[in-house]
Design goal:
The complex is a heterodimer of chains A (608) and B (285). Chain A is of the alpha/beta class. In chain A, 54% of the residues lie in helices and 11% in strands. Chain A has three domains: 311 residues, Orthogonal Bundle (ABC transporter involved in vitamin B12 uptake, BtuC), CATH 1.10.3470; 155 residues, P-loop containing nucleotide triphosphate hydrolases (Rossmann fold, 3-Layer(aba) Sandwich), CATH 3.40.50; 80 residues, no CATH class. Chain A has a six-stranded mixed sheet with strand order 8-9-10-5-11-12, sandwiched between helices. In chain A, strands 4-3-6-7 form a four-stranded antiparallel sheet, with helices on one face. Chain A is elongated. Chain B has a single domain, classed as ABC transporter involved in vitamin B12 uptake, BtuC, CATH 1.10.3470. Chain B starts with a helix and ends in a 14-residue tail after the last helix. Chain B is globular and about 55 Å long. In chain B, helix 1 packs across helix 2, helix 6 packs across helix 8 and helix 11 packs antiparallel against helix 12. Classes of the chains: A alpha/beta (608), B mainly alpha (285). At the A-B interface, helix 5, helix 6, helix 12 and helix 14 of A face helix 4, helix 10 and helix 12 of B.
Amino acid sequence: MDPAPLADAGVLDAGSGALPARGARPSHLRALIPFLALLALAVVLPLTDNDYYALIATRAAIYWVLISGLNLIVGFAGQLAIGYVALFALGAYTASVLAAGTVLPPAPVVLALAGGTAMGAASGVIVGLPALRLRTFYFAMTTLGFATIVTQVALGWQSVTGGGVGVAGPSLPAPFDTAWGLYYLCLGIAVLCTWMTANIARSRFGRALVATREAEVAAEAAGISKPALLVSVFLFAGAVAGLAGGLFASLQTYITPDAFTFDLSLLFFIAVLIGGRGSILGPLLGTIILTMLPEVAAPLAAWSTFVYAILVLVIVLAIPGGIAALLDFRSRRPLPRDRAILPHLGALGELLNADRAPVALALRGVALGFGGVRAIDGLDLDVSSGQVHGLIGPNGSGKTTTLNVISGYYAPQEGTLTAGAATLPSRMPSSRARHGIARTFQTPRIIGEATVLQNVMVGGTTIGQASFAEALLSLPRQLRDERRIEATARLALDAVGLGALADVRADRLQHSELRFVEIARALMLRPAFLLLDEPAAGLSPDEIKRLGALIRAISRRGVGVLLVEHHADLIFEICDEVTVLNLGRVLAHGTPAEIRAHKEVVSAYLGA
Amino acid sequence: MLASIVASGLAMGAVYALIGITYNTMFATSRVMSFTAGMLGMLGGVLGSLFMLRWGLPILVSLPLTLLACALVGVVTEFVAVRPVLKSLDQHLYVLSTLAVALMIQQVTAIEWSTEPRPFPSLLPMGSGMWDEKYWLPVIACAVTVAGLEYLYRRTLVGRAFLAVAEDNFAAKALGLPERNLRVASYAMAGAIGALAGFSGGQLLLAFFANGPLLNFYGFIPVALGGLGNNRGAVIGGLALGLFQQAANFTFGGIFASVAVFVLFIAVLLAAPQGLFGTATARRV
């Protein structure tokens, strides 16, 4: 996800103020210019009065209706849906068959198109089911298998689909029964789809989709449930694919299985790929170019699959960013060199609410083994509100495993895990955000291609209340959500001292800065408990000091902090209690002063 | 009728199992699922028909020639589509790069060979009815391949080196094993296995360019059922799939058989994401 394409979707806010400005901003408008220019061209196209142009332009609009939805799946969520022609064909056949009345009594055109849309949405979810749980290749394979089967059924089920002879498409009533009438209808729907997908792209759903692609583990820790998210997107993408199919059947007036070859699926997929991931303008341009390509280069028609295949190979191997990356000039501007992370602890007061009831996170007799190794072996641990609890021990003593059990990535084989009165379920990392448990990771899990601000906003996904449908239509509650999440994110960034870098691509930051970005993202949950996994690793002594003050200040706002760290100085300076692990067991527990004097700890870990 | 269901089911199942083993052989050394698996099967049939019917070569020349040509395709795949994307395996770019190579193979075949199914010659004038060679040849080819692979993996030094790379790439490299050469070798081997699938099943599938995507999908199902990288699982899964498909074919007819297979595939994947004989995934955090 590059800032330039995000800007084109209106995702990126270049405003430099700490609070979001209201209304349209200059950058917002600038991002709209290419879209408006394309729309203006499209609107005046009928002046050419060339029916051949009408056909090609209508086709491009219809393809874009499908691709706009597919873009959310491929470009944002990174799921490789390569057989989307199947949904297109299903929509086309459903609409045609309903309108022709070969199965049910003939339905009005609008109902027939709605039927195709519903069919597309339902199939979109069914084909997508494996993507919810399995690796990417499985999803690629199911969509491909589905495409094969839909063609076979269309050919074989002659009583309904007409087999190889085909079936008449639904004919639209006036004023859509002329070439240009149908064109304006399809153009209108295409504009609507562009607007809706742009709305999703700049909502918490769009950010969450990218987060599941680039940093799935961090997304789960932020409370993002990938299955729920993907089902919404599959429904939407399937619906627009079905609708596009119905419109295509009207355009063709007569459809046969030959109209839905795998070539078409490739066109859809490659349009997104050429356009670039996480962009909307890119795939739109890709769609227009690919629709026109066979018309301009007629001799290539027989070799079109081969040309598409070479395009795929070239994009994958040479320009994985697509058109969008080529147009991203913003990220080539140098950043200031002598920048420092200066946490602004005052902002924490606004961010974290100090007067909430104290709760305790408690582990009792937790044990977990991998094969023959007992990684943790009967561990008792308490983290209380307002306290910093240090967890130290030699490598392999079970510190990170403990964090992973608390945040739900591992299921303990024995023992219990409670936060306040609630028992935390095993193996459900995305449930932890609801219990106010936030965390950072040993290696920062960041979306490199998104801005720092967007990365932090991912942490606030669960703050939002608007549903996917509200986000699609940009309804008031969605706008309120966005303002709130952005304001909170800017506050969190100020608190950790990165306010000035909010609009920079995250992969341009230094390692130490990414650690603070992760803390800001975790603070978005306004957590009751904050788990930090070696936050000081790779930081300079000055930065460690500021980090210590920040952690201390966070805990004084009523947050229970569990700190895994190797820097003994930091631990003894800021912790209220310390637990020392060795070989999965508690070696010692007490105040920093007690631990420092503990003989076994000194000999096993700290050294004399 | 039962007999012919069993005969054709086992034959098709053996072809699917061989394609599944083709996937597995490539996966073992590279962690890449390659879309070229089905294309290799398709090429086995097309090249066999080309060498024997069009050029009139004897089977003893045609078979090695077909296997060799497909082994070469396997090696080219490794160089063009696998090696460049291995560095960023987690981005799944191999799905796209191998798909691209697969489509090129398919398109060239469609244009240079034919878009119509062409006949595949009878190899050995033996058997008739349900004992026709077209039913038992794939089964024998599958049995020979599995036995050969078992022997290679368990009894030979090279085979053990393959297993070492499959088990832990980095450790194998650290031990000084020629990981890159072994990978290329495994792609060549996969090419030959895929070709054997198409060659032995030639009379069932014919020499038809569109067999590629079909074999890609139906050959992947045994892998999904049996667990990635598990050859025995692939054989059991493949034979089960063949029998199920042929039974559905005879009872409901062709189209609904494919729908039934697809539905079953999704259902099994959701119920047992790691496959019926697979193992759980590695750590993520």
